[in-house]
# Entry
Amino acid sequence: MAEVEDQERKSSEEFTDDSEEEESEEEPKLKYERLSNGVTEILQKDAASCMTVHDKFLALGTHFGKVFLLDVQGNVTQKFEISSVKINQVSLDESGENVGICSEDGKVQVFGLYTREGFHENFDCPIKVVALHPQFSKSNYKQFVTGGSKLLLYERNWLNRWKMSVLHEGEGTISNIQWRTNLIAWANNVGVKIYDISTKQRITNVLRDDVSLRPDMYPCSLCWKDNQTLIVGWGKSIKMCSVKERNPTELRDLPSRYVEIVSAFETEFFISGLAPLADQLVTLYFVKENAKQLEEEEEFRARPRLDIIQPLAESCEEISSDALSVRNFTDNECRDYRLEHAEGESLFYIISPKDIVVAKERDQDDHIDWLLDKKKYEEALMAAEISFKNIKRHDVQKIGMAYINHLVEKGDYDTAARKCQKVLGKNMELWENEVYRFKTIGQLKAISQYLPRGDLRLRPAIYEMILHEFLKTDYEGFATLIREWPGELYNNNAVVQAVGDQLKKDPTHRTLLTTLAELYTYDQRYDRALEIYLRLRHKDVYQLIHKHNLFASIEDKIVLLMDFDKEKAVDMLLDNEDKISTDRVVEELRDRPELLHVYLHKLFKRDHHKGQRYHERQIGLYAEYDRPNLLPFLRDSTHCPLEKALEICQERNFVEETVFLLSRMGNCRRALQMIMEELGDVDKAIDFAKEQDDSELWEDLISYSIDKPPFITGLLNNIGTHVDPILLIHRIKEGMEIPNLRDSLVKILQDYNLQILLREGCKKILVADSLSLLQKMHRTQMRGVRVDDENICEACHGTILPSDMAQPFSVVVFNCRHMFHKECLPSSGTIPAVQFCNICSAKKRGPGSGILDMKK
# Structure
């Protein structure tokens, strides 16, 4: 079947002008094939004169008076011998059950294909055309028209007899009739007319444009696009006529319908046939061309053309154009060609005396054929993937393989390899064939990154072959594949052996060593991998240790880890103290004090108490390797021996650290003395004195500074808030020159003034607060206190009011709202007028403890 279709496709190309297609990159819209089988035999002995198309079969009339019914493949199903001369027209109704035939000798026959009953008449003039009512098979529509010198309408009456009426005459021979619903369109020598059989009115007359053309040589082509649109083609003119309903107010004596020409334009060639295609138009052209022969111009007949055009208001746009190589085209005239089409199908039949060609809209298979012919493989593959359910002759994978072959031939190996992933899919056999082909052409690298590596996998030998290829020529590419490919794809031991053999030639190659470590890791030989990583100082060594819990393996390699990256190593050791103890780390680092200091310093920063047993050792380490952090360590540590620290600091003449240690040990005077004598920094001395807040220290500081003008200036600027400046000023010797004395005295006065202002401000705030609180207390004490049956005595817990209110009683109510019977309160002693609430005074006497005496 595929071979037959391929032959049809090749034969289709024979009908079109090859030179035009080669020059044009635009894809044709139609494909062509010759109607063969029984038609071939008929046309060898006879010639086609007319044909009518039904969706079920074809009806072909010949020059020798025969009518053949054909299937769509061209096989003869029935034959009728009507006359001995040319059949002019064959007409079918919509059901395909009735046929009308007319011939050049005046015969007209209308009959049922299955009954053979109907109308048979011989006229005394040639009948050029016959047309059945589209619904002729129904009893109410037994009508047909014939066209010769007159347009005659035949109707079957209720007596089963045929009644004839003349619809039109007197304008020459009628050459074409097209019947659609209730509208009959016909063409004569003058023009085209439309008759409405429902209203029995003629509604238009479209005149012929070029009257110089002989109507019998250049007949009119008529075609209904739909129930309201008639397309007229005559000579080189095309008109599209729209039948419209007339406004009832405009009727008068006019027909109820009228025709409006919505498009009219000229064409380049003579029109032999028309057919609608959606909103476009298929036109069959008869072509005459001029040629110079022996210095004289003469016309010769060229191939007929089948064009698809887009009608516009006054012009048209050419969509496609094909020149057809029909048989004996050089002998044909314009009247010898006809174009018929199947309603509802995009099938067009080009009829000539010795040939019938079928034009079809190209389907996806044809589109893919064209793309492949033009070597547009990528577009062909995309089209096949999108329409894989609709294509019949093509296979997506075969198109993809053709595309890959094309890319390989071009030398575009990377693209070819990338397309393998999409085209080969899950076909393991194809994958392996392609791999071996790429190996043959020396392009294994190109296909390596696209090989299946998920659930779908090739044989391990395939992957190993590619790895060996990379190992010979590209170490970096080999390393990339080892990282990207899962280890299950290949035999790990075989690859390790191959890498080992390669390292014998180049034992220090970093890439090969790193890759070998990765292979060891996958093979769970972590110790071997760790050795290589440490040897290379590779950044992944810490990740390897964490991921595979290799802390037991690094206990004797701590120095190597620290040498590689101290910060990462220390963080890892401190984060995993439960796996490698501090004592073990200190033991390993005993011969590398600079590394030991880094470790202990970070340990101290995390927890001041964890490494307390090493604080004494740390003093010397800080003094040797990290003096800036020695003083903060001495301040924060509560476990280092002060005497040992003082000894080390004094040996190294660390004044600041010695000062701190002396002050911490209580020898503040000696510390102050070192600041003044060895540092000579009055500001630090003053800060130290302020920190200790000891009057004796201030006295020592003043005594030491009294004969040093710069120290006196510093004291004058800072002493005011801690010691009375007058004491210092009185002790300054007369005549001593003190730098910036005036500014210092001004500052003292400003500080004193500021203190006075602060005191006054505080006094005002205190007075205001006191007044506010006094007023609040006064308001509180003036407030009434409700006494009722619900209140109880806080001493006896009885009801505060007696049951007999007529009897005299005394109640004591304090401002704190506690109530007592007077007799329940203890004696007030020598001052009976002053009493306090027993409950509140037990806590704290205050404003709430005053008394309110209620008597009756």
